[in-house]
Amino acid sequence: MLAQLSPDCPLEIAIIGCGITGPLLALGLATKNISITIYEQAPCPPDTGAGIAFTANARKCMALIDPRILDCLAAVATTNGDPNHPNNNMRFVDGYTHSPDDTAQKKVYELDTGPKGFEGCHRGEFLSRLVEILPCGVRWGKRLDAVVEVSGGVVMRFCDGSIARADAVIGCDGIKSRVRELLLGEDVPASYPHFTHKVAYRGLVPMEQASARLGHERAHNQQMYGGPGAHVLHFPVAQQRLVNVVAFVTDGGDWGVDRNLSQRATKEEVAGAFADWGATVRAVVDLLPAELEKWAVFDSLEFPAPTYARGRVCIAGDAAHASSPHHGAGAGIGVEDVLALTFLLGIVSERVKTSRRRALAVQAAFAAFSVVRRERSQWVVKSSREACEIYEWNDPHCGSDMDKAYEEIKRRSQKIWHFDIDGMLRELELEYGRYLAE
Fold this sequence. Notes:
It is a single chain. This protein folds into two domains: 12-79 and 121-193 and 306-392 and 428-437, FAD/NAD(P)-binding domain (3-Layer(bba) Sandwich), CATH 3.50.50.60; 87-115 and 196-299, D-Amino Acid Oxidase, Chain A, domain 2. Helix 2 packs parallel to helix 11 (330-351), helix 3 packs antiparallel against helix 4 and helix 12 packs antiparallel against helix 13. The chain has 14 helices and 21 strands. Mean pLDDT is 91; it is low at 1-5. 39% of the residues lie in helices and 26% in strands. By secondary structure, it is α+β, with helices and mostly antiparallel strands. The strands form five sheets. It has an eight-stranded mixed β-sheet with strand order 7-6-15-16-17-14-19-18, sandwiched between helices. Strands 9-2-1-13-21-20 form a six-stranded mixed β-sheet, with helices on both faces. InterPro entries: FAD-bd (IPR002938), FAD/NAD-bd_sf (IPR036188), FAD_monoxygenase (IPR051104). Keywords: FAD, Flavoprotein, Oxidoreductase.
């Protein structure tokens, strides 16, 4: 029999998912005297994953959530450029047009992101650091089946037959979120991500090999090569021991959401897609291992979630607004979500003590979160798709004009990087008060 929650107990939140957003949220809520349990369907922490990056804005949010998060990031982060003199530039260049010395004679566009403006790391390494400092246990191997709101709380049923109870549930369970399905309805298209008709070939190259083939400066710096219908990105990872190469290619076929999002591929597939490109891009592709991974790029653009919350159930991060990776902003927007929820539930924890008022206050907090965060996060989903079109010369305004493309990417990027965090917090508190008063 489930124990009843006492009004004198701390607010108890169940977090579904132990990716990046879930642990960050657990760390933030713990600073507000909130009890947390994380439920994760995987049997243990994953040690694999792609590279992720965080802007200065995202790191400011981390510091407000829990300063120890920045220590975790610093321990695994990789600088861009010369380690003794790192830079903050994102570089763009025409990778398609042929010239005698290829990119040596092409204009390189440098977008200054500010001090440590785009700090990257390996997702698995960062997650391992976060799990080490979690204030709560993680219930591994817990695949969520159903969520039911009851008097005074929420009951969760898991696929192994077990049940658990909390004051509220927050789904941080990623792009294939079960909480999103339960929140919006299993027959609703918005409950699921959809294929963008782009695939990403990913491979890791030893830095020594990349430097020998591409030159020291190019290998140690982030660089994006644009061209018709595809683009290639590479950047240093693993404290500059490796170069992460990602090649995006159009795929006009179908890729169902029930299918695994990644599959094995060969270098020959990638080489065929870029056979007509410039010598530098072909050299980058030639560095790839013989076998690599091909990832289907999904997002929530066509069918966005109409709301991020209903009652005492909420979704955040990729579960709420899965984005394609072309802005490199999905993880950072999730960090903003975490700060917003930490702030709102901190107000509930501090000001509301009775069980009836607590239930209403949590609903008001979730409703305020949905209203305030939805516009910005959905804009990022849309702009990320459009950024891909710009990189791949499909944008009607920019076409193959790299000058125009650079200015457009800069405008969009600065909207992501220069976000008014304090303004967001003020708006959240106003919305929370408005909902609570209704």
